[in-house]
Amino acid sequence: MIQRTQTAVFDLPRMRRLAAFVELTKPRLVSMILVTTTVGFYLGSWLVLDYTLLLHTLIGTALAGGGTLALNQLMECEADALMERTRTRPLPDGRLQPLEALVFGAALTMIGLLYLMLSVNPLSALVTAFITISYLFAYTPLKKKTSLCGIVGAVPGALPPVIGWAAVNETLGIEAGILFTIMFLWQMPHSLAIAWLYREDYTRAGFQLLPVIEPDGKSTGRQVVLNCLALLAVGLLPTLVGMAGPRYFIIAFGLGCLFLWYGIRLARTRSRASARQLMFASLVYLPVLLTAMALDKLPL
């Protein structure tokens, strides 16, 4: 009995460290990446879905994505320590050391990219590598320099469906471009709503996001409405190019109008409540849209 208790106590720190490494990869964000990758894979597939290839794609994407997000936390460790919402992450609160995060993140990223290269195809690995490079070496440093970082950051965030499409097709086309554009335009109001909610935090960290550098919120509101309008139009393209059927068109139009309505509310009121409602609307919009697209998919 005593020996069992001692073993349990001995294993507790190890389990906590393991949990810290897992947290470093941002599992919830990785899950979203895998969902959108799966949608891209499914929409790019012919009548029979290759489940083995899909599994390989998701494994490689998860490894590379988790590693990239771990390296991002390493690069933003000092800023995270200044913000209420991030100061308890593994690096700011000292559960992990920077060298550990560097080795772990770099190894995970490289393993993921090599896995995609060898088990899926070079194009999927190339798209994933571009996500890593643009996220770490363009978006992350630009967050402290210019509000244009939001546009730059939306690029790697919009590419996971393209990984799925490339994995099954070994080529890209207009359909992959439409998926990318939908994801890109969706991210703008989504991220601006979050930035408006946490603008005090971002100000303390020195991030030059639009709601920080223009605190009256007028420019934020304009950007939200413009991107919602563009998303309403682009969201209809899958039906027009033969990716999805008429049922998807109706759902996409309704979702787009609803999303735009919440965007206009934020632009008019510039309140925290409106920003929170827009954020939740964005979290409903994307999965419902992608599900409708997948369910109403037309044969390629």
Sequence stretches where pLDDT stays below 50 over 5 or more residues = 5-10
Within CATH, the superfamily of the largest domain carries the name UbiA prenyltransferase
CA radius of gyration is 20 Å
User: How would you sum up the global shape?
Assistant: globular
The fold-level CATH name of the largest domain is Tetracycline Repressor, domain 2
Any idea what the CATH architecture of the largest domain is?
Orthogonal Bundle
User: What's the SSE pattern?
Assistant: HHHHHHHHHHHHHHH
Q: How many beta strands in the DSSP annotation?
A: 0
Q: Determine the N-to-C terminus distance.
A: 63 Å
Query: Main beta sheet: strand number and arrangement?
Result: none
Q: Helix/strand/pairing class, anyone?
A: mainly alpha
The helicity comes to: over 70%
Query: How many H/I helices?
Result: 15
Number of domains: 2
- Mean pLDDT comes to 93
Relative strand content? under 5%
CATH class of the largest domain: Mainly Alpha
Walkthrough of the structure:
By secondary structure, the protein is an all-alpha fold. Helix content is 79%, strand content 0%. The chain has helices at 2-24, 27-44, 51-75, 77-82, 98-119, 122-142, 149-157, 160-169, 174-197, 199-205, 210-213, 218-234, 237-240, 246-269, 272-295. The radius of gyration is 20 Å and the shape is globular.
